[in-house]
């Protein structure tokens, strides 16, 4: 009788241990259709284009678009970004505007928002050359989940998206082979 009770006890413990294993209930979603990539676009903001530069895309609706503006050489600044222009004689004071963007799965639209600022008259010719003409933007497509094929090397770390160098390192991107497109 003692042997039967021992086997029943071991069976009950074994059954309890097996039934507490919940690994079968975990559903993991992996984004295998997104490969992180980059594209440079260069264009000029003008009143004819409503101060907008557009670029077609073809990405899943679950991906994320990051946009950076080239500010000097190989330095990139994340947008949206407010730009405050120093006062100059003959121009209004407190001049400023925003580089901004919107996107969907077919298009990214980079624009200048200037609610209280008149770009054609409130900028000097040098400022137009610096802030509107031949502006280069880097579009970085990344998966919303960092587990895709082109995803992050360290799945448990977070990334500072405002730091361009941290983003390319996190997503293991090679920024020496970026496709360049001239628009408008």
From TrEMBL:
Species in which this protein is naturally found: Chryseobacterium lathyri
UniProt keyword annotation of Signal present: yes
Signal sequence region: 1-19
Protein name: DUF1735 domain-containing protein
Superkingdom assignment: Bacteria
Keywords: Signal
């Amino acid at each position: 009788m003692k042997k039967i009770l021992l086997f029943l006890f071991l069976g009950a413990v074994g059954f309890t241990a097996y039934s507490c294993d919940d690994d079968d209930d975990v559903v993991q979603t992996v984004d295998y259709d997104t490969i992180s990539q980059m594209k440079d676009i260069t264009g000029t903001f003008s009143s004819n284009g409503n101060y907008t530069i557009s670029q077609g895309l073809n990405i899943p609706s679950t991906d994320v678009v990051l946009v950076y503006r080239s500010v000097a050489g190989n330095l990139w600044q994340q947008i949206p970004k407010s730009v405050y222009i120093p006062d100059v004689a003959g121009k209004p004071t407190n001049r400023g505007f925003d580089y901004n963007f919107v996107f969907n799965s077919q298009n990214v639209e980079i624009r200048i928002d200037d609610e209280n600022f008149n770009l054609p008259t409130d900028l000097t010719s040098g400022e137009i050359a610096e802030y509107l003409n031949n502006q280069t933007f880097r579009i970085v497509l990344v998966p919303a989940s960092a587990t895709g094929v082109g995803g992050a090397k360290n799945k448990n770390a977070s990334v500072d998206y405002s730091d361009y160098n941290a983003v390319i390192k996190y997503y293991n991107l090679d920024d020496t082979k970026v496709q360049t497109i001239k628009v408008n």
